[in-house]
From TrEMBL:
Protein kinase domain segment(s): 1-230
Transmembrane helix in keyword set: no
Enzyme class: transferase
EC number per UniProt: 2.7.11.1
UniProt-recorded Gene Ontology molecular function terms: ATP binding; protein serine/threonine kinase activity
Source taxonomy: Bacteria, Bacillati, Bacillota, Clostridia, Lachnospirales
SMART domains named among the record's database cross-references: S_TKc
Family: Belongs to the protein kinase superfamily. NEK Ser/Thr protein kinase family. NIMA subfamily.
CDD domains to which the protein is assigned, alphabetical: STKc_PknB_like (cd14014)
InterPro entries, alphabetized: Kinase-like_dom_sf, NEK_Ser/Thr_kinase, Prot_kinase_dom, Protein_kinase_ATP_BS
Protein name, per record: non-specific serine/threonine protein kinase
Length: 412
């Protein structure tokens, strides 16, 4: 059994002759409205989209109707969120994919009306949308309105006209769930103030007139964040080094200071056993609240060895993690960041070690997430290193003895 819902139970079956898997929705004709099954089949037969399942047949016997559809392999959004928290960038990317599916349905005069995590399937980093038992044509208004609490729009429980904005509300709640793990409208308070929060608020307005009206318009707004306003999206920024004493912690705290200067809520978290943060805290005046030390406008969280509640991290645009020395134990976690900074000094033995790391680890990845930060080098030394070595995205971090100095933004 793959799942069960208001309109029936879905089973995984195998076609004996073709030896292929199929999903079969089994609907008891004495307990359900048979028209629902035939309406779902009628809608699916006219939809041809890679993220929408194909319908192959519909059969009926004395007790059941069987809707035979393509089996969609993968993990549901519910299962995914139970295993990991999505960064804002990924959540926005998946929401845009969902918008594109619904925009295609709207172009074909159809509303889904049951968008929820259980009906969103992930496979190869793409989403597919299943369960069209609640779908209607845009010229219809259902006699019986049914929806999933927490995701269905207010008009699904009232008399207001159902339209394309009804699915937009559900997409907004799904996006909120991806970001917070909650499907309560109040969870919006856990998202940092900015354009993304404004867009979600525009999706989940109770008044259909004030809501973003179409999935295509929602996709356009989300794309504008993704491409033109990345500062408003939360990023997990990982900082590490291949050798001790290269200035990794210095770099992480400096990044936190830079983003705060830019007006972005930033926090720097220690993820190594050096205890450097506690050493720094002891020598400075600080404010302390909820596990966070604030020193000279920089927020620091020491490594509490897994004993601290990290829910507050959702309040920050930039989460900077100091990994210290990168080794086989933390390499996978380090590379999972949205942006990864590898810090090195200027000495030949440091550059040689970094070159080996790039050759064995970074170059095979073939992505643009990696940044090399060259520390302790003056402009002339930096130019010599860049000309000689093909490092990905090299950046010079000017030497500054005061770790909290509010100097220039060296990321520019």
């Amino acid at each position: 059994m793959l799942g069960t819902g208001a309109f029936g139970t879905v089973y995984l079956t195998r076609h004996i002759t073709l030896n292929v898997l199929r999903a079969v929705k089994c609907i008891n004709i004495y307990q359900n409205n048979c028209d629902t099954a035939y309406r779902e089949a009628d809608i699916l037969k006219n939809l041809r989209h890679p993220s929408i399942p194909i319908i192959y047949d519909i059969e009926q016997d004395s007790e059941h109707i069987y809707v035979i559809e393509e089996y969609i392999e993968g993990m549901s959004l519910t299962q995914l969120i139970s295993q990991q928290k999505l960064c804002a960038g990924k959540a926005v990317e998946y929401a845009i994919q969902l918008c594109n599916i619904i925009a295609y349905m709207n172009d074909n005069h159809t509303y889904h009306l049951d968008i929820k995590p259980d009906n969103i399937i992930f496979f190869n980093n793409n989403i597919r949308l299943v369960d069209y038992g609640n779908a209607i044509l845009d010229v219809e208004q259902p006699d019986i309105r049914m929806g999933t609490i927490g995701y269905a729009s207010p008009e699904m429980y009232g008399k207001e006209k159902i339209n394309s904005g009804s699915d937009v509300y559900s997409i907004g709640m799904v996006l909120l769930y991806m970001l917070t793990g909650m499907n309560d409208e109040g969870a919006i308070r856990r998202i940092g103030k900015g354009r993304l929060r404004e867009i979600i608020n525009g999706c989940i307005c109770h008044s259909g007139r004030e809501r973003i009206s179409t999935a295509r318009e929602l996709a356009r707004r989300l794309e504008s964040i993704k491409h033109n306003n990345v500062e408003n999206i939360s990023l997990n920024i990982h900082v590490g080094t291949v050798l001790k004493h290269s200035g990794c912690t210095h770099c992480a705290i400096s990044l936190g200071r830079i983003y705060e200067m830019r007006g972005q809520a930033a926090i720097v978290c220690e993820y190594n056993d050096s205890n450097d943060f506690f050493k720094i805290i002891k020598s400075e005046d600080f404010r302390f609240f909820n596990g966070i030390f604030r020193l000279k406008n920089v927020n620091l969280v020491p490594d509490y060895h897994g004993h601290a509640d990290r829910d507050f991290l959702s309040d920050y645009h930039k989460i900077i993690v100091d990994f210290g020395v990168i080794d086989e134990n933390n390499l996978e976690s380090f590379l999972s960041g949205d942006i990864n900074y590898i810090v090195t000094g200027k000495e030949p033995y440091e550059i040689d070690k970094l070159t080996e790391f790039c050759r064995n680890v970074l170059y095979p990845l073939n992505n643009n997430k990696q940044r090399i930060v060259i520390n302790y080098a003056d402009r002339k030394q930096y130019k010599q290193i860049v000309r000689k070595y093909d490092f990905p995205c090299p950046i010079r971090m000017p030497y500054e003895p005061d770790i909290f100095n509010s100097g220039k933004d060296w990321l520019i």
